Amino acid sequence: MNPMMGVAIYGILWWLAFFLMLPLGAQSLHEADEAAVPGVERGAPRAHKLGLKALLAAGIAAILWLGVAWAISVDLMGMIPH
């Protein structure tokens, strides 16, 4: 696998993991029965924790990337009969 393909695959896996983790742990003001400041949507999350979710997505993407890199290195797709 060339380096550019490795970076592209990692980027795709990171975004996939990040978007899948966005709704986890999110609680809106409406669900928490808290009053909203004027101009703030009651459906918006109270604490989004994007930094933590980005770091967790990086770890998940790294583990998945290792699996994809291994599958490419042993030519796993070439072993499947057509």
The biggest beta sheet reads: none
Structural class by helix and strand composition? mainly alpha
What's the average pLDDT?
89
Domain count, please report it: 1
- Bin the strand percentage: under 5%
Helix and strand pattern: HH
**N→C terminal distance:** 23 Å
Which percent range fits the helix content?
40-55%
Question: What overall form do the CA principal axes indicate?
Answer: elongated
Low-confidence stretches: none
User: Quick one: how many beta strands?
Assistant: 0
What is the radius of gyration computed over CA atoms, rounded to a whole number of angstroms? Answer: 19 Å
Outline of the structure:
With 82 residues, the protein is an all-alpha fold. It contains 2 helices and no strands. The radius of gyration is 19 Å and the shape is elongated.
Q: Can you describe what's shown?
A:
With 82 residues, the protein is mainly α. It has one domain. 52% of the residues lie in helices and 0% in strands. The protein contains 2 helices and no strands. The longest helix has 24 residues, at 50-73. The chain is elongated, with a radius of gyration of 19 Å.
Q: What are the key terms here?
A:
mainly alpha; about 50% helix; elongated
Helix and strand topology:
Elements: H1 3-21, H2 50-73
